[in-house]
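Lecture notes, unit on protein representations.

Consider one protein chain, 91 amino acids long.
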Amino acid sequence: MAGFKITKAYTMPKEEVREAAEGLAKSLERQHGVRSRWVGDSVTIKGAGVDGKMSFHDGLIDVSVRLGLLASMFERVLKEEVQDYLDTHVS
């Protein structure tokens, strides 16, 4: 199974990180038809061929995504999309 991991450090207030993470989850829902579910400071994302988790703690955001066979064709694009969003919205 293909996939990717991204870790990004942050120094902004945790509330702002949460807002950015919620924005990313909503963007992925709109663009890729996945569903998200929040529990505390972590969100799971599930969809056709996509299973991921994003959490933030101790100054780090961790993103882990597993992709099924068909979704794996878009691995590079999805990883870049997530990385670009984090680079733009999280500091």
